[in-house]
Amino acid sequence: MHRSSLSILFILSVFVGMILGSEPKCSYCNKSIDGNYLTADGKSYHENCYRDHVQPRCEYCEKLIEGKYNLLDDKMYHPTCYIDHIIPRCDICGGPLQGTYLTDFWGNSFHEQHSSELPECNTCGRWICGELTGGGFELSDGRHLCGICNETEVSEDFLLESSIAYVRRLLTTNGITNLPDDIPITLVDQHRLKQLALSYSDAMHGFTDHNIQTRNGRVVSKDSHIYILSHLPLTMFRAVLAHELMHVYLFERDLDLRSDIREGFCNLGSEMVYKDTRSEFAKFRLLNMEKSQDPDYGFGYRKMSQLLDKRGWRYLLETLDEID
Ligand SMILES: [Zn+2]
Ligand SMILES: [Zn+2]
Ligand SMILES: [Zn+2]
Ligand SMILES: [Zn+2]
Ligand SMILES: [Zn+2]
Questions:
Q1: In this structure, which ligand is nearest to the CA of 240?
Q2: Which ligand is nearest to the CA of 57?
Q3: Considering every ligand atom, which ligand is closest to the CA of 38?
Q4: Nearest ligand to the C-alpha of residue 56?
């Protein structure tokens, strides 16, 4: 997001004059002025009255302002006090943010140029550097993972097991039931995911392969294999797993839906995990889905999410094959 720290630079105008003829009164002490006087804003003052009581002071150092000053939110600052202490600092290089600068979802503010110098974390959108993320990694498939996301990445079996149990429980509460028990889950890199998926989209973080075995024209077995991107932070891994389990739900019920309705529906599984998690990261990922321009994962998701909000899970599950 673009922000601006622009403030207006003003010049304080004070005129010094000599009294000739009629004696004006000091606008501060109300006594008459003889000799030198000052005018500011069309009013006359004794020099001392002006300096001690009228002349503006810098909001930061409290010393008198003469000549140039910066005005921000009706407060006046010496230009050097303004630059050194008032305008926001860059969270990456520490320098002052003059003019237009960028802010991210996480509340970091920084110079625009850093966004072209630093890699962006693929999962949380932070700019990867020591100051913001404690460093990060480039994975062999070209994805970037920041130090913060790396702390919760799913790479251990026990995290995978506990995630499966959690996601299944969550889906069950909304009527997504009767999923087969042992669905194999394999973590893959992005290259492999692209090979597996027939129509790959950047909004895709997993893929489910479905198989039907028939004998004499009759279905004898159905099975699914879930593939999920490796190195995802725990919450995102769970959201992707929920999405893929929704595919299994559709497959088990022979529901062959149009792609936007199908992916939109499956993204409701991810939405369920993010809303249940309530972390800032979950909010970030949810926002990502809400802003996605992908026809299926973005527009399809919003269509299904609105329908869910309006009619509820039961209606949605009962009328899935009629939705247009
Ligand atoms: Zn006076
Ligand atoms: Zn000052
Ligand atoms: Zn900077
Ligand atoms: Zn990250
Ligand atoms: Zn999908």
A1: 5
A2: 2
A3: 1
A4: 2
At 202, is the pLDDT very low, low, confident or very high (cuts 50, 70, 90)?
confident
Residues in the 5 Å CB sphere of ion ligand 4: 121, 124, 146, 149
Q: How many CB atoms lie within 10 A of CB 146?
A: 25
Residue 82 CA to ligand 3 center (angstroms) comes to: 17
- pLDDT tens digits, 47-81: 889 889 999 999 999 999 988 899 888 899 999 99
- Domain extent listing, the chain: 2-86, 100-150, 157-322
pLDDT, tens digit, 9 for 90 and up, residues 12-50: 776 766 655 567 889 999 998 877 788 888 888 888 898
Distance 81 CA to ligand 2 centre (A): 5
Query: How long a stretch of residues is the chain?
Result: 324
**CB distance 171 to 158 below 8 Å:** no
E strand spans, the chain: 2-4, 8-11, 15-18, 36-40, 43-45, 68-72, 75-77, 100-103, 109-110, 136-138, 144-146, 185-188, 206-215, 218-229
Give 33 Cα–ligand 1 centroid separation in angstroms.
7
Q: Which ligand is nearest to the CA of 94?
A: 3
**Rounded CA separation 324/318 (Å):** 14
Cα of 284 vs centre of ligand 4, distance in Å, is 11
Does residue 10 carry a pLDDT above 70? yes
Report which bound ligand comes closest to the CA of 84: 2
Q: pLDDT per residue over 242-291, tens digit each?
A: 999 999 999 999 999 999 999 999 999 999 999 999 899 999 999 999 99
Query: How many A from CA of 254 to the centre of ligand 5?
Result: 15
pTM of the model as a whole: 0.82
Mean pLDDT, the chain, rounded, equals 91
Chain centre to alpha carbon of residue 259: 27
**Contact status, residue 259 vs residue 250, Cβ threshold 8 Å:** no
Q: Which CATH superfamily is domain 2-86 in?
A: Cysteine Rich Protein (2.10.110.10)
**What's the 43 CA to ligand 2 centre distance in angstroms?**
25
- 123 vs 201, more confident: 123
